[in-house]
Amino acid sequence: MTKSYQITVNDQYVVEAEAGVSIFDSLRNAGYSMRFSCRNGVCEICKATLIVGSIRQRYPELELQLSEGDKPAQIFACTAVPRSDIRVNIDGLLRPGELRVKKLVCDIAAVEPLSHDVYRVRLHLPVTGRHAVEFHAGQYLEIILPDQRRAAFSIGSAPDFSSDIELHIRRMPEGELSVAIMEHLQNNPSVEIELPKGECYLEAASLKPDTTIILAAASTGFAQIKAIAEHLLANQVKNPIHIYWGARVEADFYLEKLPLQWAHEHTNVHVHLVVSEPGNSPGWGGRTALLPAAVVADFDNFDNAEIFTSGSPAMVYALVDACEAKGLQEDQIHSDVFAYAPRK
């Protein structure tokens, strides 16, 4: 049996390392990524800090054994091989599936109205960033104004398509930051962004074939749901996909023909447009309900379901409570709300 050691990184992650395999290769084999270049220890980009344990380093040649309380030492992950269980710190390590966050200045390709207060913004990645920037379907970016004020927006386009990034932005006249962002986007040729961000995303390759996917959005939360749906369809996913889009009144919908087109073209896609205040939408002949109520009304249980939801904290937690009452487990529902507005 091949001997192995444990590498504990940044006091968070534990990776098994076969005897004779470098720290770098052990991490890469486990799906982690870190900065590197020459792979020989010369460039020093792969530097790490050994906290505890024994290593042998090929270049610069070094044998080192540290015990708890010893002074930490710099080593190079590409050339250092564990000789015992070790603890190391590595700056910039990305766990499996995590992408490197970058700042870019993008050309503003288009700003077009989609409704009375929602705009579609298309940003064009610079040539140097197009191949270097990655994001998952469902992640978001931050727009950074010249005065360094920031605002987060879901990326409304799937990573499978062009180098353009799509955003859906609601202009709120009473919101100072909202007005400043729209004025910048409508009157300048470029904007600074930082991406990707967020843990609420979906990768088609990770789906089990029997998983039912439920995408639930309120208002401009549709941008995130749109990106996930387009990613799934681009990868020809055959799982059942239920899209719920809730609005207060009918006039708050925009691009609503798009999900209906998906449902027309794909038998596994089911779309539910839901209005919560039908009294203020006299021409509305569709479904009326609060979004959480609409979702739970359609399912006896949530076995083998994964829910991705985007909207206000109140809506998201109402959906959580309603679905958990029918057996949904905590790890089956995903939302950025859980990170920026955790329940106390």
UniProtKB/TrEMBL annotation:
GO biological process: bioluminescence
Listed transmembrane segments: none
Keyword vocabulary terms for this entry: Luminescence, Oxidoreductase
Highest taxon in the source lineage: Bacteria
FAD-binding FR-type domain residues: 101-203
Gene3D superfamilies: 3.10.20.30, Nucleotide-binding domain of ferredoxin-NADP reductase (FNR) module (3.40.50.80), Translation factors (2.40.30.10)
A GO term for molecular function: iron-sulfur cluster binding
Keyword hit for Oxidoreductase: yes
UniProt key word Nucleotide-binding: no
Stored InterPro entries: 2Fe-2S_ferredoxin-like_sf, 2Fe-2S_ferredoxin-type, Beta-grasp_dom_sf, Cbr1-like_FAD-bd_dom, FAD-bd_FR_type, FNR_nucleotide-bd, MRET, OxRdtase_FAD/NAD-bd
Listed Pfam families: FAD_binding_6 (PF00970), Fer2 (PF00111), NAD_binding_1 (PF00175)
Stretches assigned to the 2Fe-2S ferredoxin-type domain: 5-94
UniProt cross-references to PANTHER family, sorted A to Z: NAD(P)H-FLAVIN REDUCTASE, NADH OXIDOREDUCTASE HCR
Family: Belongs to the Fre/LuxG FAD/NAD(P) flavoprotein oxidoreductase family.
Protein name: CDP-4-dehydro-6-deoxyglucose reductase
